[in-house]
Amino acid sequence: MTHICLVRHGQTDWNLEGKLQGQTDIPLNETGKLQAEECREFLKKSHWDVLITTSLVRASKTADIINEALELPIVKMDHFKERYFGDGEGMSREEREKQYPDFIFPNMETYEVLTDRVQEGLKEIYNQFPEQEVLLVAHGAIISTILREFHKEEVGERHVKLFNGCLTNLHFTNGGWNVHSYNEVSHLSEHA
Prior knowledge:
Helices cover 38% and strands 19% of the residues. The protein has seven helices and six strands, in the order E-H-H-E-H-E-H-H-E-H-H-E-E. The chain has helices at 13-17, 30-43, 57-70, 93-99, 111-128, 140-150, 152-155; strands spanning 2-8, 50-53, 74-76, 133-138, 167-173, 176-184. Helix 2 (30-43) runs parallel beside helix 3.
C-alpha cells in the first residue's frame, strides 16, 4: 500500500491576518516554525521513505524543519503548489467577501486545472514511490481538493477549515486513493 501523509505548512503572517496567499511566496512566522517542529516531533515516531514539498518557501521551510530529525531525501514537486488565486492574492477576507462574494477572482486557476494538476502529482507519487511511506508538505487548497475528490461522502462540497500543521492521511488501496483521516491536530500545542 502506498501511504501519503499530507502536512499543511506552518502558519504565515498572511494566514494570521486572513489574507489569501495562493502562490505569493510568504515565509513562515514564529508560530509556523513551532508548528513545523511539533510535526517533526510527532512524525519522527514513524517510518517514512521520502519527503516531498513544493517550492513555495512556507512549504519548503516546513519540510526542512521536519527533516531535521528524519533525514529523508527531499523531492520538490510543484504539482502540489497552492492554487493560483489571481487578483485575489493578498486580499483580506473582508475585501474578498465585498468584491468577490462568489470567491471567483479574475485570472485565478480553475478548479478543473487544479484538480488535473493534483491528480497528475498523485499519479507521479504512485509511480515513483510504490508501496512507500510518503510525507508531502502541501497547501490548504491542495488538501481541500484531495478531500473533495477522494472523500466526497464525508465532506461533499462543503469547505473544511484546515489548520496549519494539520495531517491528512491518504492510502492507495483497491485501485484508488482513499482518505484515512484528515485535519489531525492532536500533535499541535495550538492550532489556528
